[in-house]
C-alpha cells in the first residue's frame, strides 16, 4: 500500500524537522516522538521512507555492510579476495513490531552449521535489516524489557552479537532509532530514553483551518492514493533534493568555539551530566545549518538544536514527563548575545581608535 506523502502532513513542523535531520545525518541518533493518539506520528514516520537518500552497500550482503565501514565476516573475506562489489540502495524504514520475539530481532542460528560455516549459518533478523536504516518502533514504551536490552546493547556497540553454546557470531547493526509513543500509556525507561538523539512532543492541531485541511487531505488520499501523490510529487522531489544537498554540505559545516562553549555552558547549567548531550546538540546544529544551505552554524541553529536534543536529558523525578527549562535556556542565550554585542561594540571602538591614531 502506498504511504501518505510526507509533504502533505499538515503542520507538526518540529516532528517533521527532527525526522528530516536524521535522514541528513544518521549520527544524530534517532528521535523519540511523544504525543496523543491520532496526531500523525506513525503516518509521518512511514512517510519519511519516500524521502530517504541512497547509500552505498556491499552487493548481496544481508546486513547492508558499508563498503567503507565495519564489515561482516563474509564481506571481510570478499574484500581480502578483492571481490567486494558495491551498489547503491535506498535507505528504508524497518518496522519492529511490539510483539517481536528475540529470534525475530537478532536472527536465528543453526549451531551445527555455524561451527563449520560461521556467519553463513545465521538467518538474519530485524537487526540485520535495520543496519544503516531506520528502525521504527511504534508504541516503544510498551516494548518488552528483554527486547529493549537487546536493542540497547546493539545500539551501544554498533554490532548485533549472537552467542549460542560457546559460538559467537556478529554483524554490524548501526540503526537510526525512531520511536513513537503515547505517554498516557506509560513513560519510557531512562536507559532507552537517553539512546534517542532527539525528542519531540506532538500536540493535536488547535487551528480549525488546519484540522479541516487534515480531513480533506486524508479523505482525498483514501479515495485515490496515486492521484493524491501526484499532487505532492513535485514538493516531495524538492524536499528529497534538499536533503541530498544537505548531506553533501554537512561535511563542510563549521561551528565556532564560541558556540561550542555556549552549548557546554547550557548543558552544565541545566545540570545535564552526559556529554552525549553536548555532542548531539552540536551535531544537530550543524545539520540544521546544512539543511538551510549554510556551511556555518548560527546562534539560532544552536537554539533549535537545544529544543530538540535536550528535553529528555533534563534531570527529573522518576515518571515525570521530560521537559526543557525554557526560561533558563532563554536567559543563557540572552547573556551570550549581550556579550557578543559588547564584543562587537568594542571591536568597532578599537577600529575607530585605530583610524584616529592613523590620522
Ligand atoms: N497533521 C496531520 N496531517 C495529515 N494527516 C493527519 C494529521 N494529523 C492526523 N492525521 C491523520 O489522522 C490519522 C491518524 O494518524 P496516525 O495514525 O499517524 O496517528 P498516531 O499519532 O500515530 O496515533 P495512533 O497511535 O492512534 O496511531 C491518519 O489518517 C493521519 O493521516
From TrEMBL:
One annotated GO molecular function: ATP binding
Coiled coil (residue ranges): none
SUPFAM superfamilies assigned to the protein according to its UniProt record, in alphabetical order: P-loop containing nucleoside triphosphate hydrolases
Pfam families in alphabetical order: AAA_lid_2, Mg_chelatase
UniProt keyword annotations, A-Z: ATP-binding, Nucleotide-binding
Gene3D superfamilies found in the cross-reference section: Magnesium chelatase subunit I, C-Terminal domain, P-loop containing nucleotide triphosphate hydrolases
Domain AAA+ ATPase residue range list: 27-206
Region (Disordered): 333-359
Keyword Plastid in annotation: no
InterPro entries, alphabetized: AAA+_ATPase, CHLI-like, ChlI/MoxR_AAA_lid, Mg_chelatse_chII-like_cat_dom, P-loop_NTPase
Family label: Belongs to the Mg-chelatase subunits D/I family.
The name this protein goes by in its record: ATPase associated with various cellular activities AAA_5
The species this protein was found in: Methanotorris igneus (strain DSM 5666 / JCM 11834 / Kol 5)
Lineage: Archaea, Methanobacteriati, Methanobacteriota, Methanomada group, Methanococci
Amino acid at each position: 500500500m502506498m504511504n501518505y506523502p510526507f509533504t502533505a502532513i499538515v503542520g507538526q513542523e518540529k516532528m517533521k524537522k527532527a525526522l528530516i535531520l536524521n535522514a541528513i545525518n544518521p549520527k544524530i541518533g534517532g528521535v523519540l516522538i511523544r504525543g496523543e493518539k491520532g496526531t500523525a506520528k506513525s503516518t509521518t514516520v512511514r512517510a519519511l521512507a519516500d524521502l530517504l537518500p541512497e547509500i552505498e552497500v556491499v552487493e548481496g550482503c544481508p546486513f547492508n555492510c558499508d563498503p567503507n565501514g565495519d564489515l561482516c565476516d563474509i564481506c571481510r573475506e570478499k574484500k581480502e579476495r578483492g571481490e567486494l562489489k558495491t551498489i547503491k540502495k535506498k535507505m528504508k524504514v524497518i518496522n519492529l513490531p511490539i510483539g517481536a520475539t528475540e529470534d525475530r530481532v537478532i536472527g536465528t542460528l543453526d549451531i551445527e552449521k555455524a561451527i563449520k560455516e560461521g556467519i553463513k549459518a545465521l538467518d538474519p533478523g530485524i537487526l540485520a535489516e535495520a543496519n544503516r536504516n531506520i528502525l521504527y518502533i511504534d508504541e516503544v514504551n510498551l516494548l518488552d524489557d528483554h527486547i529493549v536490552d537487546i536493542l540497547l546493547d546493539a545500539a551501544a556497540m554498533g554490532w548485533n552479537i549472537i552467542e549460542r553454546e560457546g559460538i559467537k557470531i556478529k554483524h554490524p547493526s548501526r540503526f537510526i532509532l525512531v520511536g513513537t509513543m503515547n505517554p498516557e500509556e506509560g513513560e519510557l525507561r531512562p536507559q532507552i530514553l537517553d539512546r534517542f538523539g532527539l525528542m519531540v512532543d506532538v500536540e493535536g492541531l488547535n487551528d480549525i483551518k488546519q484540522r479541516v485541511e487534515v480531513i480533506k487531505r486524508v479523505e482525498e488520499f483514501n479515495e485515490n492514493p496515486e492521484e493524491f501523490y501526484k499532487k505532492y510529487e513535485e514538493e516531495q522531489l524538492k524536499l528529497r533534493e534538499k536533503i541530498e544537498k544537505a548531506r553533501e554540505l554537512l561535511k563542510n559545516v563549521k561551528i565556532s568555539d564560541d558556540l561550542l562553549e555556549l552549548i557546554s555552558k547550557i548543558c552544565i547549567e541545566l545540570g545535564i551530566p552526559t556529554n552525549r548531550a553536548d555532542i548531539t546538540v552540536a551535531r544537530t546544529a550543524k545539520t540544521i545549518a546544512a539543511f538551510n544551505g549554510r556551511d556555518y552554524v548560527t546562534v539560532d541553529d544552536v537554539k533549535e538544536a537545544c529544543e530538540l536534543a535536550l528535553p529528555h536529558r533534563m534531570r527529573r523525578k522518576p515518571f515525570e514527563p521530560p521537559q526543557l527549562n525554557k526560561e533558563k535556556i532563554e536567559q543563557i542565550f540572552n547573556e551570550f548575545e549581550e556579550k557578543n554585542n559588547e564584543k562587537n561594540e568594542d571591536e568597532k571602538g578599537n577600529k575607530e581608535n585605530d583610524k584616529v591614531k592613523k590620522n
